[in-house]
Design a protein that fits this description.
Blueprint (H helix, E strand, L loop, with lengths): L7 E5 L10 H10 L6 E4 H9 L3 H5 L3 H14 L1 H11 L4 E5 L5 H14 L4 E5 L15 E4 L3 H8 L6 E3 L26 E3 L2 E2 L18 E2 L2 H15 L3 E4 L8 H13 L5 E6 L7 H9 L2 E9 L3 H7 L5 H13 L4 E7 L6 H13 L7 E6 L19 H17 L16
Parallel strand pairs: 1-2, 1-3, 3-4, 4-5, 5-6, 7-10, 10-11, 11-12, 12-13, 13-14
Antiparallel strand pairs: 8-9
Helix pairs in contact: 1-7, 4-5, 4-6, 8-9, 9-10
């Protein structure tokens, strides 16, 4: 039985992504709203507006900035911060969505709430809950993986203090996202969508696939109706898919694109795309016709040996043909590169530079160039004899590739050069 008197707040602390409303909190709210009245607090966009920092400062990896942000908020915006603490302390439950960058702010805020209201239960969810040693207060409830089912159990007065990977079988049972608890004028005129949860790939450098146990996908009809609903509400026709891969199921994607065209939705959308089989020119052209505006493609390397070590599942020849097909379909896309992956030799690195040079006419833009970082919970952590490359060598290769793409005049995003590692 649900405690009808219980009030729950769903919180995202700064710093975090500022382009769109946080989609995870919206899903939680919609799953719980038949049983409670969850309130969303996007403190990230709130304090971003107060500090008035540049997007580059807010989004760039900077340990000092992240560790000191709560203290800076106390100094500069004590009145506003205290009002937030007071408001959240009135809730029975306050759930924080934890990521690497907002963990410190969240923990400090949670401690202040708990100090003010002993009765308020703190719940930590999100990817960073796996680093439990850093979480404060220590007696908080921990949710690993999806939060919907665990949060409902908590509201039903389940006494467990730790929940792990309790996943929804049918995603279509969740109400449509409506974003009515957000001031959409504070974000870009684009709304986030999620057609699937999980990832069919298991790239060895990535920890994302460990966030879910099973891959699941909304039906095409659900997604079409969700899009129609949002168009009717907000007259917004630009969307950003937050899926790990939009082409996890090629047949699903084909039917989805056909339905967009049949319904004449006239939308534009962006997504992440994997280099894989089954993506023929006909499907790519269909994606273009269905409003595909831009694609993020994880290329990562121009060396077959490095791609094999990464577990990418394709060769340089596969990648070349794939990028060529994207180009012929007139699809806008950008690629990412990782420098310094374990066992990457100098020869492997030079092959990546050569691949970029030889295929510069196929690659509209490089979206991201990242120096390799070993993420906790990636499959690499299970390798006892992991041959990591010296940081100095990686640093030198990063300098070389930056000079190279500038010399070759290959379009790239300067803000996303080595933006995934702390320095």
């Amino acid at each position: 039985m649900v405690d009808l008197k219980a009030k729950i707040a769903l919180v995202i602390s700064p710093p975090f992504w500022i382009k769109t409303p946080p989609l995870g909190l919206e899903y939680l709210k919609n799953y719980l709203k038949d049983y409670a009245q969850p309130d969303i607090f996007d403190l990230n966009i709130y304090f971003y507006g107060l500090f008035k920092y540049s997007p580059k400062k807010w989004l760039g990896l900077n340990k000092d900035f992240e560790d000191n942000l709560f203290r800076d908020a106390e100094k500069k915006f004590a009145k506003e911060l205290n009002a937030v603490i007071k408001k959240l302390s009135a809730y029975s439950y306050v759930g924080f969505s934890l990521f690497k960058r907002n963990l410190n702010f969240s923990s400090n805020l949670a401690e202040r709430i708990k100090y003010r209201s002993k009765k308020t239960e703190i719940i930590f969810g999100g990817p960073q809950t796996r680093e439990t040693k850093k979480l404060r207060p220590k007696d908080s409830i921990i949710v690993e993986g999806e939060g919907e089912i665990p949060l409902l159990k908590i509201l039903r007065q389940n006494k467990d203090r730790h929940f792990a990977y309790q996943e929804i079988k049918d995603l279509d049972e969740i109400y449509f996202n409506d974003f009515k608890q957000y001031d959409l004028s504070l974000y870009k005129p684009v709304l986030p969508l999620l057609s699937s949860r999980g990832c069919i790939k298991k790239c060895r450098f990535c920890s994302e696939y460990t966030l879910y146990k099973k891959f699941r996908q909304h039906s095409q009809d659900y997604m079409i109706e969700q899009i129609e609903y949002l168009i009717k509400l907000y007259k917004i026709r630009r969307f950003s898919f937050q899926d790990s891969l939009i082409n996890a199921d090629v047949n699903w994607l084909e039917i989805f694109c056909k339905k967009i065209i049949e319904k004449r939705l006239n939308i534009q959308w962006e997504a992440q795309l994997a280099i894989r089989e089954g993506m023929d020119k006909k499907l790519l052209s269909l994606m273009k016709k269905a409003g595909c505006l831009n694609l993020f493609v994880g290329l990562e390397s121009g060396s077959d040996e490095t791609l094999k070590n990464m577990g990418k599942g394709f060769t340089c020849q596969d990648a070349r043909g794939f990028l060529s097909n994207l180009k012929q379909a007139d699809l806008s896309f950008e690629v990412s590169i990782i420098v310094g992956y374990p066992k990457e030799t100098e020869q492997d690195f030079k092959k990546t530079l050569l691949f970029l040079k030889e295929n510069r006419n196929l690659i509209p833009r490089i979206a991201q160039v990242s120096s390799f970082s070993l993420y906790k919970n990636s499959s690499l952590c299970n390798h006892k004899n992991l041959e990591q490359i010296e940081p100095k060598v990686i640093s030198n290769r990063m300098k070389k590739i930056i000079r190279f793409i500038e010399k070759e005049k290959i379009r790239h995003k300067k803000a996303f050069i080595d933006n995934l590692s702390y320095h």
